[in-house]
Design goal:
The protein is an alpha+beta fold. The protein is built from 21 helices and 9 strands. The strands form 3 sheets. A 4-stranded antiparallel beta sheet has the order 3-4-9-6, with no helix packed on it. The protein has a 3-stranded antiparallel beta sheet with strand order 5-8-7, with no helix packed on it. Strands 1-2 form a two-stranded antiparallel ribbon. Strand 7 and strand 8 form a beta hairpin. Helix 7 packs parallel to helix 10, helix 10 packs parallel to helix 12 and helix 11 crosses helix 13. It is globular and about 80 Å long.
Length: 510
């Protein structure tokens, strides 16, 4: 995109108005509640993450209190960077109790405000290199009100990790244009550590843009970002066969989720509005936006059933589950096309169009903002260990824990701490405890998975108390080493460059 020099008027700090806009846009959460179908998952993940974080487990992988306290390896596979934000809002749990809200509700809502504010500030930072500061601020707000970002990701799904992608996409674009290899690597790592699927569909856009700009050295930043995220990626990919992933079957089959399917009417309307706004924006200056128009049309096409032949040809795409995820790229492209406008009135009017569409969907299409959350929430379908038979847990409702509650654990008590179980048994011999087995559990006595249920069995030579520890496996340790060495290498390279630049300046002095 052709860069436009900002106006020569005195600069103004637009960060505070942008943050206030993000706060105002999230107000419906507090008046209408949250009905997003991902909300349950993320509030369970975040509150368990926060509990273990404040117990000293600064990188929780196994959540000991998930699944009725039977545990789950959820965050060994699901990116968790966003949950550090919710952990900082853990004191709001006291207000949850006061207002009779589910534990972790307000912390999750506060996190959504932070994510939206950061996304707008990131887009504002990038757009200031393409338009005036005032227009950049307005366009950052336009970015927040994009139908997919605002009404779908925030209200319909409450997809906090995918929302984080809206932070790192503009940052990656900004650092690539500014030739900041290290910062681009960190930005790309941030995208990998929050939402892998968004990273997967955004990477071709970033690579294509860098190649078209002939800024080839920026491509080196992407593998650096992968190495920075190795502490998560390596163990997650290496141990994927230890759990069950429901990414391509049933409701997660991409063939059922194209925009033009009857059940996806709302998403189709969102895509239509996105295209309308962008095509309308192209009228004054089309030549400056050919790249983003191509990305926009390609993204919407990939979300329609007409692209099914591509999905069948590129089989890894099936892991996306929902073709409408490409609307996140369409939202980014729409904002960049809108940057061609110099009229604040037009930009403001289109923000109003976005808001009217989104608010109508929030207050009418989604009905009342019912908050639904069971404190004994079970997510066995998504991260069921391979030693556990799925039929044991599914009785018509995939979250029905009745079979687990009927399991007898006589003479056994378990105290659950972060990465640690304290087990007391009045029995000797092989004893089943109410916690799921995983190879990372180790203790002084022999352990094994119980057949069919996947619970831990411990061989007690006599009655008494023992401790089990959730240790880091070799892949996890290697991942941490790779991340640490990459980080040290980047810091060393930056330090060396700074020394060379300083020496050059001193040599050039008269």
């Amino acid at each position: 995109m052709q860069q436009i020099k900002p106006a020569t008027a005195a600069p103004k700090n637009w960060n505070l108005p942008i943050i206030l806009a993000a706060l105002l846009l999230t107000l419906p959460i507090y008046f209408r509640g949250v009905k997003g179908f991902d909300f349950i998952t993320h509030i369970v993940f975040s509150r368990n993450f926060a509990a273990q974080f404040w117990q000293g487990d600064f990188f929780p992988r196994w959540l000991v209190n998930e699944n009725l306290g039977f545990g789950a390896p959820s965050l060994m596979y699901y990116p968790s960077l966003q949950y550090y934000i919710t952990a900082l809002f853990a004191p709001l749990n006291l207000l949850d109790n006061y207002f009779s809200l589910p534990q972790g509700y307000l912390a999750a809502c506060a996190t959504s405000v932070v994510i939206m504010a950061c996304a707008a500030l990131a887009m504002n930072k990038y757009l200031k290199t393409h338009t005036t500061p005032a227009n950049a601020a307005l366009l950052a707000i336009f970015y927040l009100t994009a139908p997919y970002f605002y009404s779908v990701d925030l209200f319909m799904r409450f997809a906090l990790p995918e929302m984080c992608g809206f932070i790192f996409m503009p940052l990656c674009l900004y650092y690539s244009e500014k030739n900041k290899t290290a910062k681009l690597a960190f930005g790309y790592a941030g995208l990998l550590l929050t939402h892998l699927l968004t990273a997967g569909i955004f990477t071709p856009v970033l690579v294509l843009k860098v190649i078209l700009e002939r800024n080839y050295k920026m491509l080196f930043a992407l593998p650096l970002g992968v190495l920075l995220a190795a502490y998560y990626l390596l163990p997650a990919l290496s141990n994927h066969d230890l759990v069950s992933f429901q990414l391509t079957a049933g409701i997660y089959n991409y063939g059922r989720n194209f925009l033009d399917n009857g059940s996806q009417t709302y998403y189709l309307l969102a895509a239509g509005l996105t295209l309308f706004v962008s095509i309308f924006a192209l009228i004054p200056k089309p030549r400056q936006s050919y790249f983003w128009l191509l990305i926009l049309c390609g993204s919407v096409f990939m979300a329609l059933s007409y692209s099914k032949f591509i999905w069948e040809l590129l089989t890894p795409l099936a892991l996306l589950s929902f073709p409408w995820r490409f609307l996140s790229i369409a939202s980014l492209a729409t904002t960049m096309i809108m940057a061609q406008y110099n009229s604040r009135f037009i930009i403001g009017s289109l923000i109003g169009v976005n808001l009217c569409f989104s608010l109508l969907a929030i207050f009418v299409h989604f009905g009342s903002g019912e908050v639904y959350l069971q404190n004994n929430m079970i997510t066995i379908d998504d991260y069921r260990t391979k030693w556990t038979d799925q039929s044991l847990f599914v009785t018509g409702d995939s979250r029905d824990p009745s079979h687990l509650q009927k399991q007898s654990f006589r003479g056994v008590s378990v105290r659950r701490l972060a990465r640690k179980l304290i087990v007391a048994s009045a029995n000797s011999g092989w004893t089943t405890i109410p916690h799921f087995y995983f190879p990372n559990w180790h203790g002084e006595y022999q352990i094994r998975p119980q057949a069919h249920t996947g619970f831990i069995e411990i061989y007690f030579p006599h009655s008494g108390t023992t401790e089990l520890y959730f240790t880091r496996n070799s892949e996890e340790k290697l991942g941490f080493i790779i991340t640490a060495l990459t980080l040290l290498g980047i810091l060393f390279a930056r330090r060396r460059k700074a020394v060379i630049d300083l020496a050059g300046k001193q040599n050039n002095r008269p």
